[in-house]
């Protein structure tokens, strides 16, 4: 069986762990820098070129697409899916998950609880937006932000108005959200593989920070989900259509609220805090979903060499 891990850096913890566990299964596995892949499209032929050669069609891919490379990464994933390759992350689900607004729309439609959220264009009146979102304190989120960058807590109505005016003036797309004070800088990350929770951790933000992101200095410990948290995490993963994902929830008076669903969740925090072999669970998921294709072991050739034609 041939597996490609689509990752830009084979020294990352997650990439190394996936490589290790795929190798442990006895599979032929290769880390492919998806930005160095060239897509070739002809009638009835969808090919991938890599390092100057045609890339053999694998049995499965494990996309690890960086947030800033979503467009190209998703196109690559789509190309492999069109070659009938199994992907642990579908291209549509990947694209959806990278848009915070679209994700919240999908989650809401599937009855997943989340913080009250308002989205408006920069032509709108900041005062109205603040009123609709329930008034200060509020959380503002730049749509394309990640790792906690671009997430701002504003305490007063006055501050909210001036920050909103500033963002709208710069034509930045942002979400305005009710602030869940009782979360107190903690959040829960449930790691889902194949609609099951395979591990969970609780993250606590750095002293004085309302954001729990590890990249912002937060710390993580293993956590046992209660029934409601477990059901919410699974419902969110299902709604997003993600086979492998990290569902982030914050505790609130009305139960767990989903913040976002990450389609390339890191393995380091969750494996180290829980001591669970998450990478192996991902391999088991692949194993369950594919039958090795004997044709794939054949050398791939273009139907007719039409280069230059
Ligand atoms: N409405 C809210 N109320 C309280 N805390 C919040 C709220 N929104 C976000 N937070 C805190 O800020 C953190 C970062 O927010 P969010 O996850 O939306 O941003 P992100 O930049 O996408 O981060 P990630 O790296 O997880 O993708 C959350 O994990 C949570 O701890
Ligand atoms: Mg995010
Ligand atoms: Mg987050």
Automatic annotation (TrEMBL):
InterPro entries: ATP-grasp, ATP-grasp_RimK-type, ATP_grasp_subdomain_1, Rimk_N, Rp_bS6_RimK/Lys_biosynth_LsyX
Keyword match ATP-binding: yes
One Pfam assignment: RimK
PROSITE patterns tied to this protein: ATP_GRASP (PS50975)
Entry keyword set: ATP-binding, Ligase, Magnesium, Manganese, Metal-binding, Nucleotide-binding, Protein biosynthesis
ATP-grasp domain ranges (all copies): 104-287
The UniProt record lists the keyword Metal-binding: yes
One MF term in the entry's GO annotations: ligase activity
Cofactor: Mg(2+); Mn(2+)
Protein name: Alpha-L-glutamate ligase
